[in-house]
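re: ur msg from earlier - yeah i can do the magnesium ion complex, just paste it... oh wait u already did. ok heres what im feeding in:
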Amino acid sequence: MSDDRMIQLIRPEYTASAVHMAQYPEGDMPEIAFLGRSNVGKSSLINSLCNYRGLARVSGAPGKTRTINFFSAALQVKEEDREERFPIFLVDLPGYGFAKTGGKNRQSWSDFIGEYVTKSPRLALLCLLVDLRHPGLPIDCQAYEWLAAHGVPLQIIGTKADKLKNNERQKNLAQLNTLFPSVYPAVAYSSLKRSGWPQLLDHMVQCITDQ
Ligand SMILES: Nc1nc2c(ncn2[C@@H]2O[C@H](COP(=O)(O)OP(=O)(O)O)[C@@H](O)[C@H]2O)c(=O)[nH]1
Ligand SMILES: [Mg+2]
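and the outut:
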């Protein structure tokens, strides 16, 4: 990324919620989706990337988001006196790995996550969020294997980076790159401290403009 380039996500807006394909919003905007265990920090990441607190709901209780939520936004790239805008959808997928014994949420991976990932014609990049404190959890490895087997372009994001000391952060990030090889190197992200976003936005612009 050149030093004089500035990227922002602007005009974020909730568009639609869906549980199957017929409910996906229309249009040809490329989509960047976010997937990970319940409570890993997906909604917080979307909010902090857009600098918009109440956009995606943040919850302390896991397993709250049970629909696929679409948010329209634009990636704004400013370079010297030039400005370009790339309209996109941010897609907040339901969390996996939450099994409330006996309840309706027993399934650890909603069928409609699989449907979205395999059938969405506009999916440009799937961000797989893993807690940076716990690289290589079996359930995250399973998710990665499944996504990689389906040829989905991946960006790994290690969340809650603020909870780690600098040396641990570097070590765990390197581990993520080894465990989960992807198109772009893994990013250490903190929604709390708002760190990691310039790198992530840079990768998002790359994947949109490479298409
Ligand atoms: N310390 C810290 N806490 C976070 C961060 N991101 C999310 N959280 C907390 O983790 C919990 C789950 O976050 P949420 O975004 O709702 O996760 P989701 O279920 O993946 O959408 C909330 O209590 C957040 O405040 C972060 O970067 N740092
Ligand atoms: Mg959420």
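cool cool. Residues 42-43, 65 surround magnesium ion (ligand 2) (CB under 6 Å). ping me if u need the other ligands too
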